[in-house]
Fold this protein.
Amino acid sequence: MPEFKFGDNLKIKVIGVGSLGSNCLEHLKSLDKRGLTRIAVGLPSKGLARAEAHKKIVFDPEKRFVSEDDMNEEWGRSLLSKHSQDISNELAGADIAFVVGSLGREINYLAMEHIANIARNVGVVTFGVATKPFFFEGKKRQDMANVFSDNLKQSIDSLLIIPNDTLIKDGLAAEEALTMTDKTVGDCIGSLLEIVFTVGNINIDFNDFKATIERSGAAFLGMAEGERKKLDSLLKRATTNLFFELPFKSAKRVLYLVTASKELTLDELRRVGDFLASKSDREAKIIFGLAVDNKLDNKIKLTLLGCGVEDGESKEPSTLSENIKEASHQKNEINIEANEKSEMDVPAFLRRKMEKEE
């Protein structure tokens, strides 16, 4: 029989890759008491040096500067292979590893893929949270990031993509926007773990979480909180926000947690389930949890994870070099659409941060 694990019994590893991954670790310190270990990996950098991590794995620590010309795929894979045992040692005994990084640099992608492959070999399920470059960083870098994310889905169990451009808000200072990226990635992981850690009337254990994300591909994370009398609006917000790259569409596996006061009715719970089922694949495996929090009074809170969401047309896996060559020579124009995001489209945790910073 499988061992049923709840939040307090878990061994969780969060591996921050590169500067972004290292920076987001400090926002997860409050979860250390729940069994979380923070690990920073990457090339020598100021970000890695000041990372608030339990463990650091520095690639090529004797070489302080690596030119862009040296950073090719062959060099990256050779470098990472020297640290395979270090990574394997850190993953040993873990229940899950969150792998976090930016897809704006090839070495970050290669490291995330390498870590995911090692984790799979030692039986550790992985969930990736990756950002894509800002538009102003150039088309070539964006094309590269698209290639990296497509290939990474072959190695990592489930991957949540956050395009940096979705964090841009009129009047927001550049430094605040960059800091918000770090905080947002950390908050995403915190929200996912909340699903497992929350003890309620109907509990979700780790085996439910693992079954949902294992080898599932692209992911969607939805969060919304509002008045119960506006439940229809809340459900729309949770499933249609434009913060993440992919929408909640035809998910093959769905995991959600409803938190409300004891006044929540069975009919309201049914409406939540019916709505999410209508947006999911017809054969989707759906698991839900229910927790009572009387502090919410007449409000309801929904945390939703959809895995195996629709990701356009399926593609045949190809080598990284082939994909990069193709991406680098694309001549298609990029059409920029100005999508204004109302408060209804922004996850609650990000909206609260924005309001505080205004």
